[in-house]
Amino acid sequence: MLLWPHKYIRASKAARERLAGLRAEDVRSVAVIKHAALGDLVLARPFLTTVRKHFPNASITFGAIANYLNGVPEDLVDRVHVAAGQFRPRPSFRTRMRSYRELGYHDLIFDITASSASAWITQVNPARVKFGYRHSPLAPLLYDVTIPRGFMSFEAENFLHQLAILRIRYDWPLDFGWPAPQRATAPPYLVYFPTASVPEKCWPAERFGALLGRLAEALPDYEHRLLYGVADWEVETGDIALAAAGERPNVRAVRDAKGEAFHALLRGGTVLICNDTGVRNLAIGRGLPTLGIFDATTVDTYLPRFGHHDTVHEPNGGWPSVDAVAETALRMVNAIAHDPAR
Questions:
Q1: Are 203 and 293 in contact (CB under 8 A)?
Q2: I want to staple 208 with a disulfide (CB 3.0 to 4.6 A). Which of 20, 119, 170, 241 is the partner?
């Protein structure tokens, strides 16, 4: 294996020599470390499907952390290593180090997290070659190969850059390792999810309700399904949005959608309209077109350049208007309806 000769790829001489003497089929173990919540765990899936295809004889270990286990891609790996988390009271340093060392030896370690915990894990476990981001002045001491971390391209691609520097090409559109979606036809429906991980990331519930009512009127042949979150404040937000939408025959609330029912809802929809949330990334991975409503998050980091995906945000800051979101949503639905590939 060879690295691309690029000025932004920094690698020790020993690492280049070890890679040059290593064939993809001779790699027996790969570790991928990603400590993150649901959304970013979904976006790590194309990295794992690419590792599986390029290193066919390798056992893959996924490095997770105890406080973020919802969405760990167990179906794509051979083993999951769970590091001690950030619970209160915080585990002792000795306990954390013991759990970190349980990752063990691997031919290749890819740290796509860039946190203090993932840096420690990379440091205390041996490997032929360790890959990481140049996110601090200490990075060259922790990793054998480092690259800058992008932030203006889709996050799943930012992860894949650590494989691309090895001249590995990844699938396009990205392969999330899930089957192709099955679309509902009688009737088609839009999904609305008005909450997120914290209230600060949520478009005002009254605006969500106004949008729901407007699109239900503009698209009478579609069902409009308002998906509720599980926390008390999410249920309250859903109630406010539903009341603001008004009584309409093609609007209905979806409460307590879990497990396969939740995934079926995403697989069968026409488009998901939501905030900056992990549910949006899950929909992207499932092949459901998404319309994200953003305020402060860097939009390009979470906007894939494939499929029918879009975002709405105010260039001067603040939340977008109902008019702006409705206009984009109607344009998307029309484009999807006339796409022969769907």
A1: yes
A2: 241
Least-confidence region, from 25-34, 87-96, 150-159, 163-172: 87-96
Q: What are the pLDDT digits (tens) for 310-321?
A: 999 998 889 999
Residue 245: both structure tokens together: 């939408």
Peptide bond into 89 cis (omega under 30): yes
CA pair distance 262, 149, nearest whole angstrom: 33
pTM (two decimals): 0.93
Specify whether 85 is located in the same domain as 124: yes
Cβ-based neighbours of 131, under 8 Å, separated by 6 or more: 108, 109, 110, 111, 143, 144, 145, 146, 162
| φ, ψ for residue 210, nearest 5 deg | -60, -40
Residue 183, in any domain of the structure: no
Three-state secondary-structure class, residue 331: helix
| CA gap 11, 138 in Å, rounded | 14
Please enumerate in sequence order all residues whose Cβ is within 8 A of that of 91, keeping only pairs 6 or more positions apart, or say none.
84, 85, 99
**Number of domains into which the chain is organized:** 2
Reported as a pLDDT band with limits 50, 70 and 90, residue 236 is: very high
- Please report the sign of the dihedral spanned by the C-alpha atoms of residue 282, residue 294, residue 248, residue 339: negative
